[in-house]
């Protein structure tokens, strides 16, 4: 399949499914955007692929592979659409999912809400066994107790089970035997072991992650099977790869075993793409601003590298409050949800304030202006009424928007309660969203000890370029880089991601007495496993590279800091270099170090990756035969409608510039360029926007 020239990236979002098809012979890119089909997400994917094949004239056997990212895993957790799941743990620890860490995400809220456990108490069972923190056996696994638990879960209707014994990350023997017993007593159960899903310290986080993986795995496997069968039905015989939350891609079989690793796969593709766009424009420090149909997210890229984390939360009961969701211990690109998306519903609260989200109109029924049954106002309705979106040019004219329906929804739900005209109601929504997102992005940067105005923003997602300039002005940014195809950037990012998988192993030990022989054996085993996995995905052994990261902390601390560790230091048993790497990372984050305190290691991570595909952005766009100027449209600037030029994005060539106000349209998104701003088309076909001071 290496000679097959076409590559396809597919991203399923809450409102739209985005597709990008790349011809590797000349770098040409063809984009697609179609409404997501929530009842059967693979249907939109298959329809989009069918359309791309028809538009390009490509044969199915000319497609090398499909790379896919999806919100299916996250949505299944948020909407509680997984399978009935059980939990088997050490006797006396069945309530860990409710006890958690005993920390409160809001100290002063007497009515504080916490997420309901995915596993009800009657399906959480304890088994007699006990391991000590060093992995030694204090009490052997009671097999009679284990068999009783297996039969009880089978009879209770469980379809999946998470096994999470105390300290199993140091010794997986009891969990492995429990799986054998489950296979004998309840062979139809999907079984996930914590020692395989997340072999790290943190009993609550380990249990939560393993339960989430078990909860979604049967759903995800069925989806993958339907999608794979559908693609094969087209004659696409190339492999299906899945995008992970840390920016790597894996084969279909690997993803099916670890679906929790895909919880942020779509946004991760967007961050990968923004790094490429920014580098092509000469920017190294980038604020990725991804605003789609349901949410808006932000991530920081420093010196060309996206920040990463091993901690994430999903299904928060208080949307923006850390600690109010289900904790996951998975490698992710560090990003935060900062606001609403185009389909987020606006309302007036009891204090007479405009609120937007978190409820979304999604693709069914969609915003009022879609004419598909939605009756409540959304961000997209506001942007349409403000003139930022074209009723006749949305999705290249393939989808006509209903201005009257948007105006009626705004008048009924925002205008009347607040005594505002329809344009004022629309502007109130637009400003509320922009203000919230600007504030959240600035706070996110401060928490990382960064100044937000030192970054260049790269906006992506269907709504990103619409809101980018107004948000950038609020943040005091000087530069915004708007790529061609920003509306489908996540799908494009999939095509730029390498085959990669991260392996993590917990091992708490003082650095001063670290057993380097054992460490080398552990790192070697993880590296070998990663290279075997990469080879199975088509990566030549000599092309696979391994990075080593150590999570360390000062003794007595309850949190750790990750630092990249040279393989040479581990080979030579150089503890001084390990400490120096840790303290450099600690200093960058906290502005100080503690030279007198001992350091301890908490966990080790090995990331094995193949080569990164090389994409030439200068070849991606085909110049349109049409005129640059499409006419004018009334758009809201400075408190009034202004007759504003509408330009064809594909007609702009390198070296050409545009003065604001202007509306620069392409099929999947529109750049709203305010008065005083200038956009210059660069060699990579980015629009390099200079904002007014």
Structural features, described:
The structure is a single chain. The chain is globular and about 80 Å long. The protein is built from 17 helices and 35 strands. It is an alpha+beta fold. The protein is 32% helix and 27% strand. Strand 29 and strand 30 form a beta hairpin.
Strand order in the largest sheet? 3-2-1-4-11-12
Straight-line N-to-C gap: 52 Å
Mean pLDDT: 91
Shape: globular
Low-pLDDT residue intervals, each spanning 5 or more residues: none
Count of individual beta strands:
35
Number of helices: 17
Largest sheet, if any?
Answer: 6 strands, mixed
Give the structural class: alpha+beta
Rg measurement, Å: 26 Å
Instruction: Kindly state the percentage of residues in helix.
Output: 25-40%
Percentage of residues in DSSP E strands: 25-35%
What characteristics describe this protein?
single chain, alpha+beta, 5-stranded mixed sheet, 27% strand
Produce a short descriptive summary:
With 693 residues, this protein is an alpha+beta fold. It has 17 helices and 35 strands. The model has no long low-confidence stretch (mean pLDDT 91).
What layout of secondary structure does this protein have?
Blueprint lengths: L5 E7 L3 E8 L5 E7 L5 H16 L6 E8 L1 H7 L6 E6 L5 H4 L24 E4 L2 E2 L5 E3 L3 H13 L4 E5 L8 H13 L4 E4 H4 L5 H32 L5 E4 L5 E3 H6 L7 H16 L5 E6 L3 E8 L2 E2 L1 E2 L2 E3 L11 E3 L3 E2 L1 E6 L3 E5 L5 E7 L18 H7 L17 H16 L3 H26 L8 E5 L3 H12 L3 E4 L6 H8 L3 E11 L5 H21 L8 E10 L6 E4 L2 H5 L3 H16 L8 E11 L19 E9 L2 E9 L8 E3 L2 E4 L4 E4 L4 E4 L5 E4 L3
Helix pairs in contact: 1-7, 2-7, 4-5, 9-14, 10-11, 10-12, 11-12, 12-13
């Amino acid at each position: 399949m290496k000679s097959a020239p076409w590559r396809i990236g597919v991203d399923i979002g809450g409102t739209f499914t985005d597709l990008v098809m790349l011809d590797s012979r000349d770098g040409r890119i063809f984009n697609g955007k179609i409404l997501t089909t929530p009842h059967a997400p693979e249907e939109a994917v298959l329809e989009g692929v069918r359309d791309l094949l028809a538009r390009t004239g490509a044969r199915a056997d000319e497609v090398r592979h499909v790379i896919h990212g999806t919100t299916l895993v996250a949505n299944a957790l948020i909407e509680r659409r997984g399978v009935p799941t059980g939990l088997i743990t050490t006797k006396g620890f069945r309530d860990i999912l409710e006890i958690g860490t005993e920390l409160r995400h809001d100290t002063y809220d007497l009515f504080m809400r916490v997420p309901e456990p995915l596993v009800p108490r009657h399906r959480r069972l304890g088994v007699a066994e006990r391991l000590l923190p060093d992995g030694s056996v204090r009490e052997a696994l009671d097999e009679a107790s284990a068999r009783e638990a297996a039969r009880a879960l089978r009879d209770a209707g469980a379809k999946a089970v998470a096994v999470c014994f105390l300290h199993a990350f140091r010794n997986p023997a009891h969990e492995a035997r429990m799986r054998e017993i489950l296979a004998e007593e309840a062979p139809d159960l999907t079984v996930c072991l914590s020692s395989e899903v997340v072999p790290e310290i943190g009993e609550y986080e380990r249990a939560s992650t393993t339960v989430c993986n078990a909860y979604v795995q049967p759903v995800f496997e069925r989806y993958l099977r339907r999608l794979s069968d559908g693609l094969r039905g087209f004659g696409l015989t190339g492999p299906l790869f899945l995008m992970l939350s840390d920016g790597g891609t894996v084969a279909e079989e690997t993803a099916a075993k670890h679906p929790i690793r895909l919880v942020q796969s779509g946004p991760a593709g967007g961050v990968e793409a923004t790094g490429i766009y920014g580098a092509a424009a000469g920017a190294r420090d980038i604020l990725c601003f991804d605003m789609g149909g349901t949410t808006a997210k932000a991530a920081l890229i420093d010196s060309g590298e996206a920040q990463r984390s091993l901690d994430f939360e999903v299904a928060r009961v208080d949307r923006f409050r850390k600690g109010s969701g289900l904790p996951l211990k998975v490698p992710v690109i560090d990003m935060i949800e900062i606001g609403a998306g185009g389909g987020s519903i606006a309302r007036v609260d009891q204090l007479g304030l405009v609120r937007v989200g978190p409820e979304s109109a999604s693709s069914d029924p969609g915003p009022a202006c879609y004419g598909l049954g939605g009756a409540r106002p959304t961000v997209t309705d506001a942007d349409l009424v403000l003139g930022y979106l074209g009723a006749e040019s949305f999705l290249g004219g393939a989808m006509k928007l209903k201005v009257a329906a948007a105006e009626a929804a705004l008048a009924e739900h925002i205008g009347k309660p607040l005594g505002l005209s329809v344009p004022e109601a629309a502007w109130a929504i637009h400003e509320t969203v922009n203000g919230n997102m600007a504030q959240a992005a600035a706070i996110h940067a401060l928490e990382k000890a960064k100044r937000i105005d030192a970054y260049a923003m790269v906006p992506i997602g269907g709504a990103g370029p619409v809101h980018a300039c107004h948000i950038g002005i609020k943040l005091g940014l000087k530069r915004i880089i708007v790529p061609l195809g920003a509306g489908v950037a996540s799908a494009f990012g999939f095509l730029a991601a390498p085959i990669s998988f991260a392996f993590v192993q917990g091992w708490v030990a003082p650095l001063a007495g670290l057993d380097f022989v054992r460490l080398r054996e552990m790192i070697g085993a993880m590296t070998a496993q990663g290279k075997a996995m990469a080879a199975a995905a088509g990566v030549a052994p000599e092309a696979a590279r391994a990075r080593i990261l150590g999570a360390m902390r000062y003794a007595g601390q309850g949190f750790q800091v990750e630092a990249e560790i040279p393989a040479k230091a581990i080979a030579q048993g150089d503890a001084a270099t390990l400490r120096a790497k840790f303290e450099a990372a600690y200093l960058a984050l906290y502005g100080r170090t503690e030279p007198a305190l001992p350091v301890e290691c908490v966990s080790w991570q090995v990331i094995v990756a193949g080569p990164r595909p090389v994409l030439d952005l200068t070849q991606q766009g085909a110049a349109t035969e049409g005129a640059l100027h499409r006419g004018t449209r009334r758009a809201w600037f400075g408190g009034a409608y202004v007759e504003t030029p509408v330009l064809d994005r594909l007609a702009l060539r390198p070296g050409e510039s545009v003065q604001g106000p202007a509306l620069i349209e392409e099929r999947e998104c529109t750049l709203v360029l305010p008065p005083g701003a200038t956009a210059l088309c660069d060699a990579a076909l980015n629009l390099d926007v200079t904002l007014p001071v």
